[in-house]
């Protein structure tokens, strides 16, 4: 049977617990493979999504494990998908998008590179504060 790519977004509603990271990673990986990304690109997209959700858990929700995170995976391009759009929506603490940045890459220590990884691996990364609170992160990767 031919591997079909969904034409509408795939939506996940997860809690802000690290226990849900493998579920999100598996969904992102499957969508990337269905679109036709090579394994290296798929790995970069999955890593970016993992960093994004981890940042939401740590920074927006201060490691509280029962807060909502909405994830939407959308193949872009018709009739054949040429890109993936990943949206992560939280209702946690807002930060001015101009203040969201990675620390200096030469500052070698654990943590603090999530935004750097996202911007290096994805073609587009956009943080938007939401009127009802929280943030909408949109990332796009093209084939």
Folded structure, characterized:
With about 140 residues, the protein is an alpha+beta fold. It has a single domain, classed as Histidine kinase-like ATPase, C-terminal domain (Heat Shock Protein 90), CATH 3.30.565. About 30% of the residues lie in helices and about 25% in strands. The chain contains three helices and five strands. It has helices at about 20-35, 40-60, 115-120, and strands at about 10-15, 70-75, 85-90, 125-130, 135-140. It has a five-stranded antiparallel sheet with strand order 1-2-3-5-4, covered by helices on one side. A hairpin with a 5-residue loop joins strand 4 (about 125-130) and strand 5. It is globular, with a radius of gyration of 15 Å. The relative contact order is 0.20. The model has no long low-confidence stretch (mean pLDDT about 90).
Features:
Heat Shock Protein 90, alpha+beta
| Overall mean pLDDT | 89
CATH architecture descriptor: 2-Layer Sandwich
CATH secondary-structure class? Alpha Beta
Taken as a percent bin, the fraction of beta residues is 25-35%
Helix and strand run: EHHEEHEE
Write the CATH homologous superfamily.
Answer: Histidine kinase-like ATPase, C-terminal domain
Q: Work out the helix count.
A: 3
**Structural class by sheet pairing and helices:** alpha+beta
Low-confidence stretches: none
Measured as a percent range, the helix fraction is 25-40%
How would you sum up the global shape?
globular
Overall structural domain count: 1
User: Termini separation (Å)?
Assistant: 23 Å
Task: Please summarize the sheet with the most strands.
Answer: 5 strands, antiparallel
* Spatial strand order of the main sheet: 1-2-3-5-4
Number of strands: 5
Rg over C-alpha atoms, rounded to the nearest angstrom: 15 Å
CATH fold-level name: Heat Shock Protein 90
